[in-house]
Amino acid sequence: MCRIATCKRTTKETDIAVTINLDGTGKNEIHTGVGFFDHMLDGFARHGLFDLNVEVKGDLNVDCHHTVEDTGIVLGQAIYEAVGDKRGIKRYGHMILPMDETLALCALDLSGRPYLKFHAEFDNDRIGDMDTEMIREFFYALSYSAMMNIHLKILDGENSHHMAEALFKAFGKALDMATMDEPRLCEAWTTKGSL
């Protein structure tokens, strides 16, 4: 089974193309025009072992908002398509990830019911060329377009860069777990019959 999807979205604000391979090795090619965001997506892909290609042309002359949020929408759509009918996968994933002084938690459910619970307070308004408030906006957009329940929380941390990076890496690890095969199942893991 090949779990690869490509999604595109073009608006007056952004032009985005994303390809994800859930069964990859972490190879990626990411160009959003926002250096820190590229770094975060690279951490997500490498630590989730997803092959990921992201090409974005956004209205960065305004700010990074549309670029980051819309990338979340398109990446979420690609994840949703690549996962497919969810037969025979673990469905749930979690990770508590340390990064120096930071400890981040991610727990998620490929439930078909979107929801984001996000607890992270950053001391800085920006990290590099990205507004820290956009971290939550990215995951919010992704959770809804991927039809995924995501809980993200900084349990401990001081350095904003470490905190953001730990969240993206923890998300990658948790999503990898949730999309893994469960050999004891040949259907979706639900009492409802489908997800």
Question: What would you say this structure looks like, in words?
Answer:
By secondary structure, the protein is α+β, with helices and mostly antiparallel strands. The protein contains four helices and ten strands; from the N terminus they run E-E-E-H-E-H-E-E-E-E-E-H-E-H. A four-stranded mixed beta sheet has the order 1-2-4-3, covered by helices on one side. A four-stranded mixed beta sheet has the order 5-6-10-7. A hairpin with a 2-residue loop joins strand 8 (126-127) and strand 9. Helix 1 runs parallel beside helix 4 and helix 2 (65-83) runs parallel beside helix 3 (133-145). The chain is globular, with a radius of gyration of 16 Å. The model has no long low-confidence stretch (mean pLDDT 95).
Task: Supply Rg.
Answer: 16 Å
The biggest sheet, with number of strands, parallel, antiparallel or mixed sense and barrel status, is: 4 strands, mixed
Class based on secondary structure composition and strand pairing: alpha+beta
Helical content, roughly?
25-40%
Give the overall shape, derived from the CA principal axes.
globular
**Strand tally:** 10
pLDDT < 50 runs, ≥5 residues: none
